[in-house]
Input
Amino acid sequence: MSTSTTARREARTRTRRAPSSSRRLPQGLRAWLRALPFMGPHLVLFAVFGLIPAVFGIYVAFTQWNLVGDPEFIGLDNFRVLFDTDHAFHRIFINGLWNTILFVIIGVPLLIGVPLVLAVLLSRKDLRAANVFQGIFFVPGLISVSAGAIAWNLVFNREFGPVNHYLGTDISFTTTQPWAWGTIFVLTIWAGIGGNLIIYRSAISAVPQELYEVASIDGAGAARSFINVTLPSIRLPLLYTTVMTTTASFNVFAQPLMLTNGGPADSTTVLMMEVRDLAFGGGPSIAGVASAMAVLLGLVLMAISAIQFFIMYRRTDV
Output
């Protein structure tokens, strides 16, 4: 056998034994690289329409800017203004934040409790056409809030609305309290319970029937079975919907804008409406103060979400 033939065989043997560059990579990194082409379009959209605007909005909170010239960095001045009790922006911020928190305090329990009760009722074995009722409750969520607000404005209209007509009253629901808040919550519940309803009903259907049978043998009624069996079994969907519903409620904007336009006397003007008016209102833009308000709202939301995670995950580990 010639020397050249032996050298070629040894070279091929070394080539086969040499690990490829992909094998030298950690398994987790290889899996991430394989998934990157599928995640790429979403990551680009998230960066362009989510991450970059959020970072720029935080930067604007530390500047003085009218949306025309170049932003001028002024440090924490915008935040100092919001906490200065003698300044008009402080009163605007506190009023908007209070109205937002009021909406969250009342709206979130309704958006969690109402679909949960409906999901329990629709999960009954003796109920016919449960899917039809589920579809009826879900369809309003597919309609834009603006279109829904127009329809409910007609329902609550003082002159020819069916509510005043059948109740024999003469109430201007959208311009007097507490009816103004009531109309906002009616629109919110009508449009917002469908998604949570589907999540809860799916989670309840996955609860083993043996647990209910054991509870029944122990003498548990419907209410006790719901508290001791159903709720612990769907705690993770409850955690998810609670956090997501709270996040959406803190960002409420369209319902009070379309139904009451913040009235009467700014009693339903939420913080996102104040941010919109300061940054894009009829007068000179005060984008820095508006961004500072949005940043503070985000911090409040992050704190509340962290508390929710802590409380519900601690209950999950018990």
User: Anything to note?
Assistant: Strands lie at 63-64, 72-73. The two ends are 74 Å apart (CA to CA). The mean pLDDT is 87. The first helix runs from residue 3 to 17.
